[in-house]
Amino acid sequence: MEENRRLLGIDFSTASPLLVELLLDDASEPVLFEEIAKANMNRPEILGLLMENPDTPNEVRQQIADILSLPVTQKTEVAAVRKNPEERSQTILQRIQKLSVSERIQIALRGGKEIRTILLRDPNKEVSLTVLENPKLTETEIELVAKSRSMPDEALRKISKKKAWMKNYNVIHALVANPKTPPAISLHLVSELKTKDLALLGKNKNVSEGIRSTAKKIFKARQGH
Fold first, then answer.
1. Scanning 127, 129, 160, 196, which has its CA 20 to 30 A from the CA of 7?
2. Where are the alpha helices (DSSP H) in 111-201?
3. CB neighbourhood size of 163 (10 A)
């Protein structure tokens, strides 16, 4: 089911203006602007959003201007009215709150960093878990999720099952030290920790007694005691 959802992605030709606007405001790749423009040549309201966005590539602007018979506004001219980062983040959050659950799931798959950060905290578990399927997710973001005590257990299980993420030592360490991580996963990973981290883990009152005692045993074994 997850694989099918990833392949389907978002149908930009029927996506709501609000959803499209959010994606455009948080976009980091020119191809997204091209995809949206191509799918919406008959939707003036969406073409208008593209023209208003300071990050829309000039080639896309020219294409839209020809269709709508408008003068071409260059990126540099539009950029002058961009909101400051704090206002922009707040606006993104407010608009996300107006989306339906299915729309939030859709942008969780394609959204940029600001959208991903907001949706990882979404009260709907399916939305927050879907962010972990976003191909643009960075290892730094995964590490933060692995450390989080507010994420659902399923998110931590999902991270532990992805080989590419589990090659990152910081992710392994974060999962073991997170009391929210299911014990079966933590216990399996303890032996992969560096000796200095085992010593600290053995004294860490935030993790279970089972994790602490296992860390102490492995530490002593490595010290030759």
1. 160
2. 113-119, 125-131, 139-147, 153-160, 169-177, 183-189, 195-201
3. 7
Q: Provide the CB-side half-sphere exposure for 50 (13 A, CA).
A: 32
Give the chain's end-to-end CA distance (angstroms, integer): 50
pTM of the model: 0.81
* Domain that includes residue 211, residue range: 138-225
Other beta carbons within 10 angstroms of residue 33's beta carbon come to 21
Question: Which residues, 6+ apart, have CB-to-CB distance to 193 below 8 Å?
Answer: 172, 173, 176, 201, 215, 218
Residue 155 shares a structural domain with residue 177: yes
Same domain, 119 and 142: no
3-state secondary structure of 13: coil
- CA 145 – CA 151 distance, rounded (Å): 7
